[in-house]
Give the backbone structure.
Amino acid sequence: MDNDFFPADPEFINVERRKAKALKQTAWWKNQIGTGLCAYCRQRFPPKELTMDHKIPVIRGGRTSKSNCVPACQTCNRLKENMPPDKWRSMLEQRPS
Ligand SMILES: [Zn+2]
């Protein structure tokens, strides 16, 4: 249920965004985007076109961690941003893999 949506407090968001910036500098992240694979549509892109996506958005209390951050293409990123999380999830589940 995503009906009770309380935005995380601004301080938390700032901290997690700063962590994301740092995480992007790590060898781990460079490996993630090095494959060029979008975590959602599974298509390949030039690494510089992939963005860091928080599976659970920071604004919903998601943390900047290796398990919560995935490479996403700009199309998926935009789609996901404009979709309620449950709708996005069911769309992913319907996608043939
Ligand atoms: Zn994608």
Observations:
- Residues 38, 40-41, 43, 72-73, 75-76 surround zinc ion (CB under 6 Å).
- The radius of gyration is 14 Å.
